[in-house]
Amino acid sequence: MRNQLFMTRYYSSVTKPVLTPLALAIALAPAPGWAENYFNPAFLSDDPSAVADLSTFSRNAQAAGMYRVDVYLNNTFLATRDIAFQAVKTTGKSAPTDDSGLRACLTPEMLKNMGVNTGAFPLLAKAAAGSCPDLASAIPAARTRFDFAQQRLDISIPQAAMVASARGYIPPQYWDEGINALLLNYTFTGANSQDRSPGGSAENSYFLGLNSGLNLGAWRLRDYSTWNANSGDQNSDSDWQHISTYLERDVVFLQGELTAGDSYTPSALFDSLPFRGLQLASDDNMLPDSMKGFAPTIHGIARSNAQVTIRQNGYIINQRYVPPGAFTINDLYPTAASGDLTVEVKESDGSINRYNVPYSAVPILQREGRLKYAATVAEYRSDSSQKEKVKFSQATLIWGLPHGFTLYGGTQLSSHYHALAIGSGANLGDWGAVSLDVTQATSTLADNNTYQGQSLRFLYAKSLAQSGTNLQLMGYRYSTSGFYTLDDTTWKRMSGYDDDSRTDSDKSRPEWADYYNLYYTRRGKVQLDINQQLGGLGSLFITGSQQSYWHTDEKDSLLQVGYSDTLAGIAWSVSYNNNKSAGDA
Length: 585
Hints:
mainly beta, Ubiquitin-like (UB roll), Immunoglobulin-like, 4 domains, 17-stranded antiparallel sheet, 5-stranded mixed sheet, globular, disordered N terminus, fimbrial usher porin activity, signal
């Protein structure tokens, strides 16, 4: 019976003596030796042939096989994948850089999907499909490290071996659709009010909002419904309303999202409309963060291996190294709406070349090469009984061009409405950013008359860094008397009250806010949004707008002024708001 689990092995070297005094002295000297603990496999079974080879574990290594691991490329998470691992010897280039004793099997196809320029390395280019070439031998300075405890595989590949891509880019092959799931979010509020005076009454009111959903593969089903209940001494009522339901999924190769059901059209060019139908539109969430929004493209020339540093408003927003020659940087993270960029090129000899790139942006601007689209085929959706549920289609396209220009256009079509819009935006450097577009529309209204009109829109943004003034947006829209929107053509009558939002007791006292009159069309609208930094004294903002109408002197106006600062570590603010609608006394 064996009772020894761990045994100690002794190793020594033996030298055959030669009959000389020197050899005899060496032979009598202590011989080098060492010892190690090992697991005695005979302890597991009396039959040695029934015991598996445990030599791998005796070296603190791991068994080869398939493992589900988190894959990181150059410290950026890619995906969670099942990766095959092979046992390797601890000598030679193929030795692992960790103590797992394993090497990840990375096929040429897998490396290509990760963005590796496999065609530039013969060992990878000639490797058979499904084979596992040694990464360290194929690409100089490349290595992998497997953290067995964390089930994490780190892959390090020199940037020169990668296909050029935007920072933060993850190939679609590694995108995850998530798990199948049922979702339910709810909001419940209630109130009880009592009149304690003699003969007083009590009232109860409740509200329940339900956001439910189903995730199944790439599809997402969402529904929003509400319940209202009111009760008192005299009467009580409750109302269950279904607000919206839609089904959506990503369309990866179009970098867009398909929506079926209840949603809203984009508002970049036309007024946003509620609809029930189909919409396919670009989804910026499919872009890496460094490609979202608008930022200028930086061009320059380096005389040597140089460090390029980009600052905005005194802050470093980007720094990288470029080889000699012309360079282009087109993946800046979205910056503030405006503020000149300072580019500093530091050469290897220490000399510095510094220049400014003026930058401002309006909402419509897109990066060079970016194509943003939206197409909708649907039925107009409204809870108002005063509106028709007309069928319509809408398409918009926004294209980012070189040199800071953006071209855009779109159309809206229905049985009673035709509109075509076209415009352009530009980053004008020291002059700021501007966009200008015009819309031509033909409308048939409730009086069965046909109207034609045009609407001109102008937007401007500029930052004055020296004074700390940020003119975030200044806009003006002018419309002729015959210009109407698609929403205007859905009214059943030329004027009246939209009384759906009022109870029966309110209908005898209509509010001006419920009133509409299609003879009073929009004329001019001006808007302004300014933010002023006051150094160590806080900041001030001013927001204002005014809308005028044809055939009436009534106007809509809005003015908001606010000031904020920090005192003794406490943030505080004060604001003023004045809002006036047409028809208000």
